[in-house]
Design goal:
single chain; alpha/beta; Enolase-like, domain 1; TIM Barrel; 2 domains; 7-stranded parallel sheet; 4-stranded antiparallel sheet; 15 strands; globular; binds 2-succinylbenzoate; binds magnesium ion
Length: 374
Amino acid sequence: MKIDAIMLRELHLPLVRPFETSFGVTRERRILLAEIQSEGLTGWGECTAGERPFFSEESTDSAWAVMVNELGPVLAAETPEHGGACPRIFRQVRGNRMAKATLENAIWDIEAQREGVSLSRLIGGVRDTIPCGVSLGIQASIPELLAVIEKELAAGYQRIKLKCKPGWDVEVLERVRNKWPAITLSCDANSAYRLRDADHLVSFDAFDLLMIEQPLWADDFYYHSMLQKRLETPICLDESIRNRRDALAAIEMESCKIINIKLGRVGGFSEAIAVHNAAQERGIPVWCGGMLESGIGRAHNIALSTLENFTLPGDVSASARYWAEDIIEPEVVVSAAGEIAVPDTPGRGYQVRTDLVERLTVRKETIRAMKLVG
Ligand code: OSB
Ligand code: MG
């Protein structure tokens, strides 16, 4: 496919309520979108980098710079026939996986449209609906958290994940478990603990959690494997898994029993599929994480979640939980059974509300072709 234009934008979208993790509070998202035109088709990608480099090394500003100065010009000079050609095109740029994923995923969207199939079918997805869970940020008090859980369970969500950190963990889990002895419950520490907290983390075994997500360092496998030996609760790795080789290392070392796959964190659909396959071949279940995406990122997450080994409910939930008005139509909705119906129209399956996108845009840049050295 010939790349006719790559337009990058930054949008500001306020969250309907703040989202707090062990590393900070987000009130408004600065979202980067890539709109790629190719032979009459338009593909969209969304960057999942945070406003600050707290989840990973990337941030909104670093991803913008890398897309504008490096990845965009290189992609515009190529004629990729498939989304799967992007890792080779971007190979010379090290890291910056969220920036790479933004552009690669837009190419997959175009490819699906060109083939006249949904993104889900293009990547080999096997599900018509995906099971949904919610990720609940740290709240001001336990009674407030209990009220939020009550609402999400009533809405049908199949799994509740609680953000946790030292001081917002055992007592919280205890109160939630006492109130709901049978719900599927997990927690996510976003690296808030150290190995000296191992005894404390072992006490989480009392709460029958589906998993503890990323308790230790964001770049670690070894200490997670030491911790997993002591825990009955399965460890799930998020931050630590950057690619297929990381997944293989983590599985081999028994650093985790479950893997969270995020498109941005691993660099796009190609690597996400590779991580999925590697885990599946080794009997490790996966689920799709979220990064407070707008509708475009959400649409891509839904397609990814239809692969066979996405057997656990993910963090992909309804647009309305985050946005007063999403930038796609229809918005993502979740049924009373806690499922999202996977669209079967060509491409991403949701229309982008271009007028709204234009209104929310605070900067945009169109990219011209350039060859990298070599
Ligand atoms: O670790 O899964 C995480 C949001 C921002 C950064 C990291 C994480 C999260 C979430 C949100 O848990 C999940 C969602 O988008 O609903
Ligand atoms: Mg996580």
